[in-house]
Design a protein that fits this description.
This protein has about 450 residues and is an all-alpha fold. The protein has one domain. About 60% of the residues lie in helices and about 5% in strands. The protein has helices spanning about 5-40, 70-80, 85-110, 160-165, 195-220, 225-245, 245-265, 275-300, 325-330, 335-340, 350-370, 385-405, 420-450; strands at about 120-125, 135-140, 310, 370. A two-stranded antiparallel sheet has the order 1-2. It has a two-stranded antiparallel sheet with strand order 3-4. The termini are far apart.
């Protein structure tokens, strides 16, 4: 590494430290803001009262008998003090964990896409695939700050990653005054402040997706370290996600199965079928606890003694409220813009492809299935749409941040500036993302004032 590259790397390290400190301070501030919201929600259980949400339905003695993580956690917290004082603290920590999980995910995806500073960084299976559609991660020569599996190093635009991560929980569907003026009802949302089960689901799902990608990048690299730890972390995060709500498991498991099946059946240089099977086996073992739990809650919810059943009813709940065209277009305007401008570049980005596949599967499930009986209007099959949208926004943010980075310099050559067309494209996409966030912050402030969430 020459002198210019060393100076650039030191500067990046300094920026990364500064952004980390600011990000940590923002998380502390938001923690107390979130705690206030959940404190007020935990004191109001009637729909006619301000701050109404689902939270009071899980606070003892209202806690339903069942199989949700929130029910068991709230019971344990209530048992410690004999009241609900610890519950808002836990919920605030869960909301901040959503933010931290998104930052870890975006940071890893930026490293994974080659967004490293001072590092010759490549992805591929030995054939130089741009985004490593089927292969491990490989550091180039002289990658002083790069790690072979992409787990370390300083990625470009850490400040942007910190900012967008902190704002990720505030993303809301875009509204059109007098035409389509909805914040949550009749929309395609990506976050649900009224649902304690969803908040825990979002945090654990983002971590599960992150650990899956890390394990995916290492599974065909015999020299990679940390596989057992990643295996346990992935299995644990996926189980907590399923324990919170099965929504992520329902959209993630089929997509991950398809990805791993392709890796298993696709011939690779130096990897006979037996080694490919050994590489894929950890993924199969990691999902076993979640599969068992999913089967258990299915029969508990829809078994012979249950009054509820899964019914195929195309578009019943989806078309019940709102415009079926506006909902996805306004709810996913930013990811759609990123897709339009970057579809060709991201053809080999497995994280991006999986995020869109999960969003599509979430919509298909929500459009196709409903519960009958007393849970008909609970919309439980629609939570996969909300959760997959949350992850799709995070992955799309990483693609957007990577595009903001000018072409990497070579040697002492200056960085290649962005073209006018690229700047216009990025400005338009940034304005769309800003609209999502500004509207989401306005909605959150409305909730802080005691407003009803379903508007």
């Amino acid at each position: 590494m020459n002198l210019t590259e060393r100076k650039r790397s030191r500067g990046a390290l300094s920026i990364d430290r500064s952004s980390t400190i600011i990000f940590a301070a923002a998380c502390v501030f938001l923690f107390f803001v979130f705690r206030y919201l959940f404190l007020m929600q935990s004191a109001h259980g009637e729909i006619t009262e301000p701050f109404y949400s689902d939270l009071m339905a899980y606070v003892p003695p209202n806690t339903p008998e069942g199989f949700r993580a929130i029910s068991d956690i709230f019971k344990a917290l209530y048992g410690i003090t004999g009241n609900a004082v610890l519950i808002p603290w836990f919920m605030a920590a869960a909301a901040v964990l959503c933010i931290v999980s998104v930052r870890l995910l975006i940071g890893y995806l930026l490293r994974r896409s080659g967004g490293m500073v001072g590092a010759g960084f490549g992805l591929g299976n030995g054939a130089g695939a741009e985004f490593g559609v089927g292969g491990g991660v490989k550091a180039g020569a002289g990658a002083e700050f790069g790690v072979g599996d992409g787990a370390g190093g300083v990625y470009a635009n850490p400040g942007g990653a910190a900012l967008l991560s902190a704002l990720s929980v505030f993303v809301s569907p875009i509204l059109i005054p007098k035409l389509y003026h909805y914040y949550y009802a009749a929309t395609w949302p990506s976050f649900a402040w009224h649902s304690p089960t969803y908040i825990l689901l979002a945090a654990s799902s983002a971590l599960a997706f992150l650990f899956f990608l890390k394990l995916y990048d290492r599974c065909f690299d015999p020299a990679a370290h940390g596989k057992p730890i990643l295996f346990l972390a992935f299995a644990a995060a996926l189980f907590v996600s399923s324990w919170s709500k099965p929504s992520f498991f329902m959209v993630f498991a089929p997509v991950a199965f398809a990805v791993m099946l392709v890796r298993l059946l696709r011939p690779r240089d130096g990897f006979p079928l037996s080694k490919r099977f050994a590489a894929v086996l950890p993924f199969a073992l990691a999902v076993v606890p979640s599969v068992c739990y999913f089967v258990y809650i299915y029969f508990l919810s829809f078994g012979e003694e249950s009054t509820n059943h899964v019914v195929v009813s195309f578009g019943f709940l989806y078309n019940l409220t709102g415009n079926p065209v506006f909902k996805p277009l306004l709810g996913l305007a930013f990811p759609i813009a990123v897709l339009v401008f970057n579809a060709k570049k991201q053809r080999g980005n497995i994280a991006y492809l999986m995020a869109w596949a999960m969003a599509a599967l979430g919509f298909l499930i929500a459009f196709t299935f409903i519960e009958d009986g007393d849970r008909l209007y609970h919309g439980n099959f629609g939570w996969g749409v909300t959760l997959s949208s949350f992850l799709l926004f995070a992955v799309s943010m990483s693609v957007y941040l990577a595009e903001l980075r000018p072409a990497a310099p070579t040697g002492n050559a200056p960085a290649k500036p962005l073209t006018r067309i690229a700047k216009a494209r990025l400005s338009l996409t940034g304005l769309i993302l800003a609209a999502h966030i500004v509207i989401g912050i306005r909605y959150f402030v409305y909730l802080l004032s005691g407003g009803y969430y379903n508007i």
